[in-house]
Design brief:
Length: about 350
């Protein structure tokens, strides 16, 4: 047998079997099939307690899709909870009362999204989503109402006096929502749509070069899936121009495609996600990983499906409401918190641009 000189017949046969299996796998991989995403997500809840939709924060096509999903008559009959990122759990009771139809003072309600851990987040779309849930709940029986769970840890900005104190809350932005979902959703036998930033939903942390041995590497999904009974259907949103697969040109808008067993699923995750740097942690210290040592991970090992909502040019971001921008104390508060947290100057410049100041 050619290529098997010096090898036993048994070993040579094994080599050929493995080679044929690899070739067959490559030949059977198919192109991902686009399907209607609302129905696909609702269908995923038949076999999963959690469906995540990775949200590139503040983009209009994603907001339009999420509102369409939540307003679909089938959604509230299938899902119990919606977990949102840029809103502080310090105000969970306030939002609970609001979405069930109670009267809540506006200046109290808006603290839910204005007092999020990340001070550069204006919370415009979070507010719109919460208000949409209140409308959906109108007229529904108490046991059929949607609940909005606020995923940010309960930071008290009045008692944050340094960047170091702020960073302690930043470090909780995966562990806290994972524990929240475990307690409020899984242990109660409920089902939840989790709307979170894209990197929080990775199964393995790309920034740590997929080394999951440290607590800093954990994501919401990696923490949830430590429990084998926690079934998560993970959806990655396609929106970056230089990482848009060519095949989506043939897809309708919107579309969802399951990845397992497809050529897109076999692609390296880094071809679809912007990962500028990777870091290793040794002895409690973090250091850069040379690009030559960057590991690869198939997209289908990170996410179960991709969501396509249109070309990158359509992914616009709305400014804060003019009434908020006209409030000088609101603008000053955001700039002061960004400065306190030690975020880079462009974050402040963005606030000023948003409010045309």
């Amino acid at each position: 047998m050619r290529g098997c000189e010096g090898a036993t017949v048994r070993r040579c046969a094994l080599i050929l079997v493995l080679a044929c299996a690899s070739s067959a796998s490559a030949q059977t991989a198919r192109r991902a099939t686009a399907t209607e995403p609302v129905a696909a997500i609702l269908d995923a809840f038949k076999t999963h307690e959690i469906v995540t939709v990775s949200d590139p924060h503040g983009r209009m096509p994603m907001q339009a899709f999420l509102l369409a999903l939540i307003r679909d008559p089938r959604f509230a009959d299938t899902v119990n909870d919606i977990v949102v990122e840029p809103a502080s759990s310090r105000y969970q009771d306030v939002v609970d009362r609001f979405v069930r139809g109670d009267d809540v003072r506006e200046d109290v309600l808006r603290k839910a999204w204005e007092d999020a851990v990340v001070p550069s987040s204006p919370g415009v779309l979070t507010e719109e989503l919460i208000r949409a849930v209140r409308v959906v709940n109108n007229g529904r029986n108490a046991d059929k109402r949607l609940r909005v769970l606020l995923g940010d840890p309960p930071i008290d900005w009045d008692n944050v006096t340094s960047a170091a104190e702020h960073f302690k809350w930043v470090e909780l932005r995966d562990t806290y929502p994972a524990d929240l979902i475990r307690r409020q959703v899984l242990e109660r036998g409920r089902k939840a749509l989790v709307i979170y930033g894209q990197m929080h939903a990775q199964r393995k942390q790309s920034f740590s070069n997929y080394d999951m041995s440290t607590w800093q590497s954990q994501t919401i999904v990696s923490l949830l899936e430590r429990d084998a009974a926690a079934r998560v259907f993970n959806v990655w949103s396609l929106f970056e121009a230089d990482r848009m697969p060519a095949e989506v040109d043939q897809w309708p808008i919107p579309a969802l495609a399951v990845l397992r067993g497809t050529t897109l699923g076999a692609a390296d995750f880094a071809t679809l996600a912007f990962i500028p740097n990777r870091f290793g942690i040794s002895g409690g210290r973090m250091g850069p990983v040379p690009r030559a040592e960057w590991r690869q991970l198939a997209m289908q090992e990170q996410f179960d499906a991709v969501l396509y909502l249109g070309p990158p040019a359509s992914w616009t971001t709305p400014p804060p409401p003019s009434a908020r921008c006209a409030d000088s104390s609101y603008v000053a508060m955001r700039i002061a918190r960004i400065t306190l947290a030690g975020l880079p100057p462009p974050e402040i410049e963005q606030v000023k641009r948003d409010c045309a100041q």
